[in-house]
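We treat protein structure as text, and this decision shapes the records that our systems exchange. The remainder of this section carries one protein's record, kept here as part of the documentation:
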Amino acid sequence: MRRYQPKKKEGFTLIEIIIVLAIMGIIVLIGFPVLKSYRPNLRLSGTVRELINDLRYVEQSALTEQINHGIRFFSDEDKYQIIRYGATEEILEEKYFPPEVNFYLISGFSGNQVIFNPYGAASEPGTITLINTGNSTTTIEIKSSGFVRIGD
């Protein structure tokens, strides 16, 4: 004689699902303010990375096209322009910083612009320092040779 054995139920109960959702909600509520405090630093590092890429692009364009190219900085508007200096000055692109990032200091460049010649060298060395709303700063150095790097 076989005994009756109830079938084993598979799956989750409603109470288990509710508990898991409650735990996930608590983790999100705790993590959101922490993530929000990192936002200015993330914006600063992203802006620095984009500006360095644009500086290297301008340098490479000057080498490739054998025409001076440069970037002009507008510290009062927190923007910069990518420029080709041929027979006439041509603005190729204009970029604005996100609201959390501003120019802090631009030094060494006359006319607030860096110009790369057809050999890839910068017209003059200088630094660009950016600041975020959390008062963190990052400096970009441009050498006369055209070497661009994040400073100390």
User: Anything to note?
Assistant: The beta strands are 68-74, 79-85, 89-96, 101-107, 113-116, 126-132, 137-142, 148-150.
